[in-house]
Amino acid sequence: GEDVEQSLFLSVREGDSSVINCTYTDSSSTYLYWYKQEPGAGLQLLTYIFSNMDMKQDQRLTVLLNKKDKHLSLRIADTQTGDSAIYFCAVVVSGGYNKLIFGAGTRLAVHP
Amino acid sequence: KAGVTQTPRYLIKTRGQQVTLSCSPISGHRSVSWYQQTPGQGLQFLFEYFSETQRNKGNFPGRFSGRQFSNSRSEMNVSTLELGDSALYLCASSLDTRTGIQYFGAGTRLSVL
Lengths: 112, 113
Prior knowledge:
Chain A is mainly β. Chain A has no helices and eleven strands. Chain B starts with a strand and ends with a strand. Classes of the chains: A mainly beta, B mainly beta.
């Protein structure tokens, strides 16, 4: 079945850029998402990208998609302490309507 | 526009009991999906309802069930609770079935003692 993998932890200095990486196995995945989860909260949709795109920029967020390598990345520019959270990569299963397959999540720690 | 609302936010039950969780989707959204989040297994898909019909189901035992009402509100039920059912249960609603863009509620944290 579909599998999504992420590194588990990333530590950055405030003001630096953060890059969170994700790989997936289903080459037919058409929609790919990034969600953010803060402690005790649900999932907040950050951004998404369609498989016919290579890049999407939304304010401080940049998503890059390499379909050949099945690699997705999220870059956060000028990372702030408020960006400290767990970031989940998710893909829609081909033919699975709204069934999302999530990675394990990357915990981003921002230090002064 | 109100977001996805889940009630209750917290629940404490004992083994063997049953529990019902509720989810009110964003107005106009007809698809409701449920996910279980645990430290060990991460986020796992339970099932999805669209127009009162279960359209997709994850790999969970039959103790987990759900339904959707005509106003798109959804409930999920877990019978004969086990300790391993302790988790954060997240509900998500979606307007567009093509993109699958789902908006999540704050979740219901279930503790089974």
